[in-house]
């Protein structure tokens, strides 16, 4: 993956994130599901601190899934906005890296346009001064 819009140090950091940290973060985490017999054993061993799964916990899981689905939809929307007409990317790290790159390019372009605008305003001001001097003569 190319990171041409970033400094060499940033590219090294992003490559590290791509290769190791992001892989670790995106690994599915195992979910521990205990049978009622196992739950009783845990309660006996550790006291009453164990809380069995109830409706509140399952509704929390449903809310979390809805949140993840909404977040995934936003990633796809961002991917589509970054490269209209191209197939959508599903790799979240690639989408974020590309978004950061596009933002950096847009900031640089905005700075160049601002500088160009300032130069044009200065030239316009000088032209007005020359016109007023010429009309005064």
Automatic annotation (TrEMBL):
Region listing for Disordered, in residue ranges: 45-64
GO molecular function, one term: DNA-binding transcription factor activity
InterPro entries: bHLH_dom (IPR011598), HLH_DNA-bd_sf (IPR036638), ILR3-like (IPR044818)
Superkingdom of origin organism: Eukaryota
PROSITE patterns linked: BHLH
Keywords for this protein: Coiled coil, Transcription, Transcription regulation
SMART domains the UniProt entry points to: HLH (SM00353)
Annotated ranges, domain BHLH: 55-106
Coiled coil: 96-133
Ranges annotated as biased composition (Basic and acidic residues): 51-64
Record GO biological process: intracellular iron ion homeostasis
Entry-linked PANTHER family: BHLH TRANSCRIPTION FACTOR (PTHR46133)
Protein name, UniProt field: BHLH domain-containing protein
């Amino acid at each position: 993956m190319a990171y041409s819009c970033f400094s060499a140090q940033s590219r090294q950091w992003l490559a590290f994130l791509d290769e190791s940290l992001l892989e670790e973060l995106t690994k599915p985490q195992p979910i521990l599901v205990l049978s009622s017999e196992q739950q009783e054993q845990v309660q006996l061993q550790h006291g009453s601190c164990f809380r069995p799964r109830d409706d509140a916990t399952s509704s929390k899981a449903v809310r979390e899934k809805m949140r993840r689905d909404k977040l995934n939809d936003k990633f796809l929307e961002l991917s589509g906005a970054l490269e209209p007409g191209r197939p959508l990317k599903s790799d979240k790290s690639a989408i974020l890296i590309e978004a950061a790159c596009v933002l950096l390019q847009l900031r640089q372009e905005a700075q160049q346009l601002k500088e160009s605008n300032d130069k044009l305003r200065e030239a316009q001001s000088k032209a007005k001064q020359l016109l007023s001097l010429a009309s005064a003569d």
